[in-house]
Amino acid sequence: MPAVQTAQYDEMFGPDGEVRAAYAGYDAWYRGQDQGWLRKQAAEAEGFFRRTGITFNVYGDDAGEERLIPFDMVPRIITAAEWRRLSRGIEQRVRALNAFLHDVYHRQEIVRAGKLPERLLRENAAYLPVMAGFVPPGGVYTHIVGIDLVRTGPDDFMVLEDNARTPSGVSYMLENRETMMAMFPELFTQVRVRPVSDYPRRLARSLAACTPPAAQFSAGERPTVAVLTPGVYNSAYFEHAFLADQMGAELVEGSDLRVVGGRIAMRTTRGWQPIDVLYRRVDDEYLDPLTFNPDSALGVPGIMDVYRAGGITIANAPGTGIADDKAIYSFMPEIVEFYTGEKPLLQNVPTWRCSEPESLQYVLDNLAELVVKEVHGSGGYGMLIGPTSSRKEIAAFAAKLRARPDNYIAQPTLSLSTCPIFTKAGLAPRHVDLRPFVLVSPNGVDITPGGLTRVALKKGSLVVNSSQGGGTKDSWVLED
User: Which residue spans adopt a coiled-coil conformation according to this UniProt entry (predicted)?
Assistant: First the structure.
């Protein structure tokens, strides 16, 4: 298992500078544009994002100010054939994740079969015993999933991590497309791209299909869906408000909700109205102070009792965080095969589990070449990128590893594919990843064509997270 891959795959240009087929239409358009006008459009895009309020907060930022997520106007383009292959792998993985979640909260057959160590559940804070024996409405645990993909070659897409709790970024996917269509409408007449603008409608329909047993409707009525936000100071508040508005759903905070007659109801001008489906963007720990953190003011006292009694659907289900755990991730090839009976169509990035003595020793011996992550980490925090770290940083991280080896996994420093970004000097390659968004309901799996492409705007950087200086691109899936 190599620690470093040196070959770099550029998605637009081949080794000799030839334009790849996916980008042929875009390249023909780009070469016909005036560079000065393109620079002006790039500046206009930033103004559009600022006027729209597309910002995020960074936790721990002393300034406490909202920041723009930088937007690059060169799209990331995927062919229809590539997307069909990816979609099959994504659907297989998401179905396996849902089956895994059902199993770990019931008979734990995967543990009994010796495919997964029981300690990964028993010692995991993301595993919620309160969910044991309970089946969510419709049997769906992961209503909205984000699967982070990286590419290392023409046909080499790998899963970097799974986001089964509250995957964020879909609002930026939608706004990136709207911005591109506003700036370059003629481009979309020359290159046929699959639309993404119907995502909010599809999300609302998917959530409505997961109504709880207690929901009762008259003819023509629809389920009541609400989005639960921690509030305006949350880093993803823009997205919470955006999705609620686009779905025609209410945006609520914990203080707007209470238990009324065995249902969760929201305060309205006409009294308390029952909610059928709650798309929550509040972490498990803060969801119900009577069940989890007693000091939480963000959730709803008693909501877990109502949930377990069939009075509301919570999306995503509490306890899905166990599927985000990076130690669990390392077992995903076995998990996919165990629940589907098929070999995984999408491969994992090779992973060393630092909880295992032999792997820990290998990681300690090769820290300068590896990427090391916390098993519950996210957002690019709490990780070490060996090739870009100093000796002092590596030594300090080695001490953390020895103290808590079970808290970390390690992976090779992959040579992520690059896509061009627009600079004052023209096109320049930068590393990217891709987060497709997946909706799951009793009616099936619905994958939005494309997703959110995140780009490391600093030359040579592998960190694409917006909180760490990354930006975003519009993601195009071409029509056949």
Answer: none
